Amino acid sequence: MQALSSVEAVKALRDAPAAVSDYIVLDQETIDTFARLTGDRQWIHVDPVRAAAESPFGCTIAHGLLTLSMVTTAFTQCFSFPGRKMSVNYGFDKVRFTGAVPAGARLRGVFVLQRVEDVRPGEIRCFWQVEMQVENSERPAMAATWLLQMRY
Question: For the residues 43-50, what does the mean pLDDT come to?
Answer without folding.
Answer: 98
